[in-house]
Amino acid sequence: MDYGKIVDKETIWGELYQPIMPKVNSGNGLRVALFVSCNCGNIVLNCLNRYEQKYPGLLNIVGVATDDPVHPDAKISIKKRIWSQYGNGERAELRQKVINSSMNAGISCYTGAVKTDYFRKIYKLWNPDVLIMFCFGQKLDSFLYDYPALGAYNLHPSDLPKQMGAGTQPFQNAIQNGLKTSPLVIHQITELIDMGQIVGVSPPINIKLENGQYPKSLLTLLEKITSVGGWMSTQLVSDLVNKKACGENGPLSMIDFDEVLPPEISQLLMQPATDDLTEMYEVPLHPLLM
Description:
The chain is of the alpha/beta class and 290 residues long. The chain is 32% helix and 14% strand.
């Protein structure tokens, strides 16, 4: 794959990857910056890229920031977060997946520190209307989450409405509390981690095996709870596209996923988890992407 890589000490760690052939976009539509990593973040990137390809005048993904779980200087809470469950080779592979997806879509991808003057200049050039974050390891400052006129949103895999699972260990928290199910939540990003206003909550997601025990690997819970993230982020973007078309600013207040999510997906999410890490939890595409 052909792309340019800019290494600069001002990134502190990581690099800026530039596609050799940037996408052609009219510049119209909702401008979205994605701060994503792991398989779940890559799924969101690919779903929203599919949305943009299908509706090029409605959406414009302006840039991607992702974790660098390999660089020794990266401050992304590797030991506390889900990255601790992967080996170095797997971490590198997951990072490269997001970079490759960005390059294939013709979108710049940044892997360095985001609370720097260097990245703020990049972010201003991206000029996002919306920021969407999923499984991203750096805490954002107010410049980043206050900048988008239509809001900044994080997807988090825990039962935040019941005040459970905020922070870096949502899966451990679910097990410690003996939960049978745990939703995926969309909330606004604020100074307090995972404490912003809740915008939407998925239906319950079964996190236990058929025998009533928990899976041996936390990666199973990561893949299962986040499997509906592509669908939910597509709905989020669709509602924000409509909000911008009406000339409105400010964050979205609520999405009722119990109402908009098809019953068959709700039923799929309630099927037992599995200990087979080779089995991916696949949720059908959002109807807008069909």
